[in-house]
């Protein structure tokens, strides 16, 4: 049955006069209608025939946005418009083309008539944007009332006819669907009637479809739970031949890792729910266990009787091993295998909760190796890493299984000691650890003597939460270092000497900037393709009057915490620019220098202008400078930093992310921020040629750099094997002890004359 015809029309035009004109044509005045009805009643009686001239329900909108709102409201009310007349020019809002696009986006069924005399677009452009559709007509001004009326009548009838056709089509599809269901039911009945005669054919189809189209092991089990058929994948996974399996109970695959009750629960689930899926250990023919993901399904006939059970499984032993490896890496230090900060934090929180419940004390030790930095610098990172591994092993061997020893990073270790008894017992444990570490360690044929400073904090006397215990144990450790190193100290609230020492260190650092005690060392970057230097990284050193050479790892954190980094960072930038000019005047040509910048420097809005002024002062190009920042600095405030980085790039300065992969980066920000270079952290490079996980990380970073069109620099390259691996993976630039250690400018100048590229050599 045809629904009542839709006479709803929307007029979108910014001129009130147009609306009045359309209303006169499409919606006759009520008074005129009454007078005509009266005349008809006088001429034809009380029941005149209905007028043949159609009337319409006309709504007005004076801007495209208002028209869209009316269309959306009409759809929500279930009374959509059949037709819309749309003007092409409606300042200041949308033009006609955009209005039509938005109306069709809201109601694709809407018929559209373009009403215009002028357009800002050619008709080819209009049709290109809107396409030639059967729902689009053009009505040029001035308008003919008859044409308007005819268009309204024809298009509203067309709209209704289309809806009626759609309704009939839906009814027809429903009828087809119902008939199809009836035929399917009849087909099922027919299939049941011939099941017995076609059982062999069915088994062949099952074998063809299930067995030969999957790499998973498949076994068909009869109601007595004996295997009646298996596929080649089953044989490959279990080691049983096809012939050996026939007639064997499915229990032949059972592993002793699971109890009889476990298998009983599986079969109970299959009988009750019709299926079971999950992990279980299976046993191969040779007795080896393997972890499988199993789907076990019950197949019943039309009467509910069990015909077969079908088991489909695949080996997930390797996948689970990788998952456990990833999980282990997330909570353990990659170098030593010890728990990392995250796992330590979790265990400490649980230990505090247990101690609060039982009332037993709890001890936390901070351990820092004495002068590890000098060992690392003198023997190289590989020797330093070997030392850390040996230290970790000795610590673990000296403690109970219930204790936790974790590595926070560098040469910092933490020991968690629950249920040790009286607090003085912690001192006994600390002395035991110091003695274990003091035994000589053989590195590269050299016997190294290692000492450690240990700070001890006890729960609840020295803190009742993780933060307080960690902080106070750290403070006690610094007191142990002040006390002569190679010893331990319990935390004391009156440990003010450490605060005084740190204050003195801060004042000395402030004087170092002003007194010229700082010096830049430079480490070359090497092109793996040509083997020549393609740039250097500037690394600041502090020549302390009494303590000697102090590496940046010891004073940069203090500088950042106290604000000294502002003056120090400005000095480093200016010194790098001055050295660039000096090398150029010395005939070394153009050398690119990378300078590390801190979060505070990036937060200064005038950093790009400061660098530009230095470039002008020393008559160098800003393009020869590169700024390096860490992931933590980048992600601290990416939106604010983005503007500074964009302005740096605007003056030609390259932007590099240092130690990439050790922090947290959002790939979305890496794609959006103006970044030019990623530097692979040495922790991944050092074992990349021997460890599959580290190798994969390096390859992933190289692939990421390629996808984002970023240059890649590998840090910490110390062996030819590492360099060869990096080059084979497509890495083009490397930096590390294999090529050169950081060295003063004068010493590097000699090195550069031997290793610089053609550009520098010919200058």
**Average pLDDT, all residues:** 84
How many individual β-strands?
27
Please state how the strands of the largest beta sheet are arranged side by side: 18-19-21-22-23-24-25-26
Structural class: alpha/beta
Helix content: 40-55%
N- and C-termini, Cα separation: 93 Å
Return residue spans where pLDDT drops below 50 for at least 5 consecutive residues.
48-52, 758-763
| Rg calculated over all Cα atoms | 41 Å
Biggest sheet, open or closed, and with what strands and sense?
8 strands, mixed, barrel
Q: What is the approximate shape?
A: extended
Instruction: Tally the helices.
Output: 29
Fraction in beta strands: 15-25%
Domain GGDEF: 360-493
Domain PAC: 276-328
Pfam families: EAL, GGDEF, PAS
Domain Response regulatory: 8-156
Write a brief structural summary.
This protein is of the alpha/beta class.
What does this structure look like?
It is built from 29 helices and 27 strands. With 763 residues, the protein is an alpha/beta fold. The strands form 5 sheets. An 8-stranded mixed beta barrel has the order 18-19-21-22-23-24-25-26, surrounded by 5 helices. Strands 2-1-3-4-5 form a 5-stranded parallel β-sheet, sandwiched between helices. Helix 13 (372-379) packs across helix 14. The longest helix is centred in the first third of the chain and has 49 residues, at 145-193. The radius of gyration is 41 Å and the shape is extended. This is EAL domain-containing protein.
